[in-house]
Every structure is written in C-alpha cells, then in structure tokens.
C-alpha cells in the first residue's frame, strides 16, 4: 500500500511505548483510523498523550478481532515475530511494518542509518553532533530520543541520523538509507534469530536494501562477520570501508596516530589523541561518523572541533567522579559481553568490575584474557550469578554477590584502592532488578554520590 494519505484506512499499532505512540500521532495526522494495542500496561505519560489526541487504545492484552480489521499494522521493535498476534497477522496476509518504515513514507529528508551490534548509540550521537554543528538541519531518532514518526509529524528536518536495531530492520521493506553504516556484527539477541549468527548478520545487512549507486555504504573492513557476508553479496551503493589494520584508498584508516579519511577528492586528518572518544572501539566509531560528515562535504575545521568536544551519552562509559582517588564509571548500557569487552579494553588502571543481570546465554570466554590482565575483583549485581562465578573463578581472587546498586557500589568501593577504577559494565540485561539499563545506571550513580 503506497498511498501517501491514510484517509480512514484502519491502522493498528502494537506497543504503546515511544515508537508506537509516535506512530499513532503521525498516523492520526495523515488521516488514518488508528487503534493502539499493548500486551502490557501503558506508561502514564504515553496514556495521557493518547487520551489527549483521542486515539483509541487498549492495554494489558490484545483484542485480536479489532487488530485483524487493520489494513496494515505497525509493530514496536520489542515484539518478536513469534508473538501469537504477529503470527496471526502474517497468516491473514496483513502487512506488519516497523515505525521507521511507516514514518519514512512521510518525509523526503536524507536518511543516515547506523546499525551494528555495538557502538550504534555512540556513533549516532557523534554523527548527529558533527552534522548539527556543521550547520545541517538534522534530527536524531530511531533507537534514541524522540521517535522518528513523531519528529516527522512535528519537525521539518532535511537530514535524519537514525540508530537502527536489527529488530527494526526485520520489519523494513521499502525504506532506503541514503547513507548506511554497519559498525560490526557480533553475537547478540540470538534468541530472536534461531540462535544462528548468519540469520542475525543477514538482518543487519538489510540496512543496505534498496540502495542504489547514488547511495553510500560505510562498513568496518576489520570485522570478520561483515567481510564474510560481503563476499557473497552484491552491494549497489558506493562502498566506504574503515580500518585500523590496513591502509584504505577510499574510506578511513590509521596512519600511526593519525585518523585519515579520504572520500572522493575530500581529505581529512586528525590525531587520535585529540578525539573526544578514547579507546580502540571509539576510533572505529569516530571513523564511521567522520566518513558520513565527509560524504556530506562538511568542512574539516568544523569536523575537528566536533570530534574533539563531543560528550558521550549517559550510561556509556560515563565518568561518575572520583572518591579517595578511585574512579567510578557507569557503563550500564553494556547489555552484552562484547560491550563489556570494549569497556575493559579501554581501561588503563586496575578494575573492580560490576557484572551481571539477565544473561542472554552469554559466552564469557572472550572476556577471560582482559579480566586476567585488568580485573582485581568482580562484584555480581543480579539475581542469579552462578554463570559468572563459573566463568571467572580461576581468573580473579574475589567474586562477591550483591542484590542492589547501592550494595554493589559500596562493596566495589571497599575492594578498590587509590588509582583503581570501579566499572559498572554488566554484560547483561537489567530486568531482574531494574526497570531498564537507564534505571540501573541512575541507581548506580546515585549510590556513588552517597558513598
């Protein structure tokens, strides 16, 4: 269905969080007959918005008969394809799409789409920061901030930087990225992909679908899984790889301590010591953002300034302060093992590591080497910490269980000595003890202030 206006067409929206409520507002504006349905309770502020807009909605269950009347359904990314209601819709040949796909129909803005297992939020935030400071009329949406649909309905941006997860990509069909960025592919969320890495990788590569020779695809030439998929795939877009291991003619690479970007005739150079984001993984993130800026022909001075003064997002290697010479870092956004690996990799002192939560079938073996080198004690923060004990009992002297952010901060503080770093980088989801990773991070920060 390609009609641009939804005159009285029935549209059902599954999930009444940020993306669902934003989609409802845009759909209303476009004349659709909107019905929002959430399997769980709807948060008060979203409920208030839906009521203010006179949108029909339900919570704590789906009325199947009502949803099956829809001509099309917009699904929130958190709802898996194997949910009974989604299966039912598919059986009835009712198209199920993502909020990004839906909202993309109603804007002619240029789309800069960033995906990957790790570094998406940082790279999207940095790219937005560079483009905005470079004078572009740009919005930031997707997995981050105000929903894309709501911004399409209320703003007039000429560019969007979108942080896109594999779950969103799975329900995107006609949407096209003008500039697509794929940072890396590492095992995450495999429970949604039949525990097959190739299924998850194929999902990530949907970021390139519908691209033409006029578009750009930016990717990491050092990432094994990305390279594996690219061998058997025809990519129509102009390819701009980045690497810290080898020289790249068109793209980005490292020349001793200098980050070099060559795009067409445009050349950019900056010392990695001047980058706001430090650590090997952040060189990759800065390269990806820098290539986007050069494709859009931003000035080198403006780029240098933005890449040097960027402040990282909350809960991602966020410095919480120092107490008695001990640094505290909140990396609550590290909900998988890879993110924690990156965090440990960027540490330059001895670490007391706070780990744990809801384990998505984690393989902790990739952390063993770094834990041996850098971690003097592990503080577990979760309901069931057995797998952490099993994984690291031979590598660290002390592993302690705690059951609240306050207790974890206190125990870690007592285990650390002057010059050490207490790092909250849990490698797990937070739902056993907290509402979400933000709640976990904030409780940790509050606890540190109380020490």
Automatic annotation (TrEMBL):
The lineage of its organism: Bacteria, Pseudomonadati, Bacteroidota, Sphingobacteriia, Sphingobacteriales. Pathway: Cell wall biogenesis; peptidoglycan biosynthesis. GO terms for cellular component: cytoplasm. Keywords: ATP-binding, Cell cycle, Cell division, Cell shape, Cell wall biogenesis/degradation, Cytoplasm, Ligase, Nucleotide-binding, Peptidoglycan synthesis. Its EC number is 6.3.2.9. ATP binds at residues 116-122. It is found in: Cytoplasm. One of its GO terms (molecular function) is UDP-N-acetylmuramoylalanine-D-glutamate ligase activity. Coiled coil: none annotated. This is UDP-N-acetylmuramoylalanine--D-glutamate ligase. Residues 315-428 form the Mur ligase C-terminal domain. One of its GO terms (biological process) is peptidoglycan biosynthetic process.
